[in-house]
Amino acid sequence: MTSMAARNDGIIRAVLGPTNTGKTHLAIERMCAHSSGVIGFPLRLLAREVYDRVVKLKGEAQVALLTGEERIAPPTARYWLCTVESMPVPSPSAVPGQNDGPKDFAFCAIDEAQLGTDPERGHVFTDRMLRARGREETLILGSASLKPLVRQLIPDAEIVSRPRFSTLRYGGSAKLSRLPPRSAIVAFSAEQVYALAEMLRRFKGGAAVVMGALSPATRNAQVDMFMRGEVDYLVATDAVGMGLNMDVAHVAFAGLDKFDGRRERRLTIPEMAQIAGRAGRHQRDGTFGTLGLGGENGPAFTDEEINAIEEHRFRPLDHLYWRSADLDFTDVTALIRSLEARSDDPLLRPSPPGIDLAVLKALAEDPAIADRRGKAARRLWAACGLPDFRKVGPMHHARMVRRIFNYIADGGHIAHDWFAAEVSRLDNVAGDIEALADRLAGVRSWAYIAHRADWLAEPARWAERTRHVEARLSDALHAALTQRFVDRRTAVLVRDIGARGADALPVTVAADGEVSVGPEPIGHLTGFDFKVDPTARLADKRLLLAAAERRLGDELDRRARDLTKGEDSRFTLFAPAGGDIGIAADGHLLARLAPGRSLTEPALRTVRALDRLSAPARTELRAHMESWLERQVQRHVGDLARLTAASTDRHYGPPVRALTAMLADAGGLLPRKALAEPIGQLDRPMRAALHKLKVRLGALDVFVPSLLKPESQRWRAALIAVRSGQPMPALPRPGASILTAEADRLGACLAYRRFGDLWLRVDLADRLAAFAHQARAAHKTGGEIPLDPIDRDLVTSLGLSPEALARLMAEVGFREQSGAWAWRGTHQRNRSRPQPARPGNAFAALAGLKR
Q: Residues of the signal sequence (predicted)?
């Protein structure tokens, strides 16, 4: 049996990397760029999610959805979203009515291809990876651990590595009551999912529930609750790891073992990473950890597992599961033999017997079935492909398959009365969650059957009927889940408060800030800000708030004293991009900055939460923050503060005071031409005084080099934003040399000068200008400059565009003439009063910059 793909048309790319790399988004973009395409997904839920996205882009008439239980296939469909089992791929032993749809696509993609190692479904992913091809482009999406197998099995494939957009870090173990908002808890049984959701209802006000067995409608409704913020927590099975896009900040594992259908085993590291990778979205970082229950710390990750997940480093896969797609339908015995055939490639291991093969072998024990040949054998194998949605096992599932086969064996149809009776029996929205979920699993089997055009006399009618029943059951299950797991706090606590009075209630504050009244958590104390549990009703909130605040005074004063006696490192400049600017302690905002006497002396406005402090504690904390702010200003922008002081110091001459006043008011940076008048009045001692004040009189700008350090730039930008009443700008990465043209406001707020489509940091622009003047000084005639006035090494390292370089040279005072640079004699330096020629100045300036 060969391991090579049946076709090798078009470009084949393997896009490999950890979760949260945008691989699925890439596949959608690439497919929509082609005239037609197909993508195979590991889950029906994910196929449906992507189908909805592509419909918005291309319209319903252009897009098809093909899964075992759902088929939406407009005649004009060009883009097909499928489960891997339902992908319309050519097969030498195709079953009539199966793999419907066009076989020739311009684009083809297989998602989560590393699932070729899954004992149950791996052979399907392997088959699609080896045989499914687009005539123009094929994408194989999966984990980086798949790379060596792709290289050996598909040597023509181009391998593209995708890094994760955000950072994933281990957050340790946490109790259920202390999980951060926007957390997903992952369990490995329906019973545990329901138990955790019930506890979250009591502790946190509710949770959404997501399981693979839910219908897409139920799953979407539950996820929407979570995404809208109606609940801050989500409890899910490991199905959440298969690419479903949700805004999750933290993933907590309720266990690290699962039953895989054969035995209870520990999750593999790639499985852990697949689930943990749901934390963080796009460029927002995420964390993962474990859940402690019943006073225990919960399951524990090993150091090896934590490092592998955080660094996205996994042991390369050394095999995939494989099952032959070239089946022999001579008779049932030959069919079983072909299904159990082995590949001659050592990388392709025989797939463990699946439930379809187990059912086939069970039915083959009947001689009447074992003698079936040709088309009858094909129909038998198609019937064995009915998924065991009810999870009843091979022997019980075989009974249903046998009855179906008895109807379709000789080309007949399933009895109308039997089908109608079974669907009608399931069309019942009464009962609890377990009963509704069981009926949903049952109707999925009939929905699968209804989409087999050769099994029913009226397949379209029954497909619509089963879809209607599934929708009704989905709505009922969503309502039941919401009622059970998202009910607000019962009136029991409120009645207890009313009977005993607020003052009599024991109020406790946990180490993590959780405030409880008796056994019930009622809110959280974050820093100095107390917030009532958002799940409490409005009438309850007032009573709970009064009960808590009467007892929180001592705790708040204790926290204030702890801060004033603590280290400076506990305080930070609070300056989120686009937000207010202030002072935070331990991550909590305590005061906002407002315009003050000067740029380096902003005013301090404490937040309302500090009003709950006693007067002495509030006064002491405010004085400590003012002192801290003064020290930080001196540390990070002290040279700017010294300019402010020099502007009023009589020791300096009027030109120096005028220049330092203007420079200090501008935040330590001004174009040289804006200071032409005071610069023209400077004599040598005045220039020496400015040098001591660390002022650089550059060719293009006058600036203070120390203010260009990353943290100094952050403080300078914050102080300028405070004085102007603007929010904190988004800062470039530390040490960035060049900004794009979109950063117009940043260039002015920080220390960048614009040259065409780029902004260049002023010290680098001054370095290039100084180099040019050095070259000019070496040629005293002032005509054409034989030496190259451009520091080519620096220009290359900066990646400066030709347009930006030409603009910089023009501002310096040069023009390009016949392939050489000439001095125009109109540089702004000459607009001030004439200076005696000092050829050494250019060299000194350049040397100073290099220092």
A: none
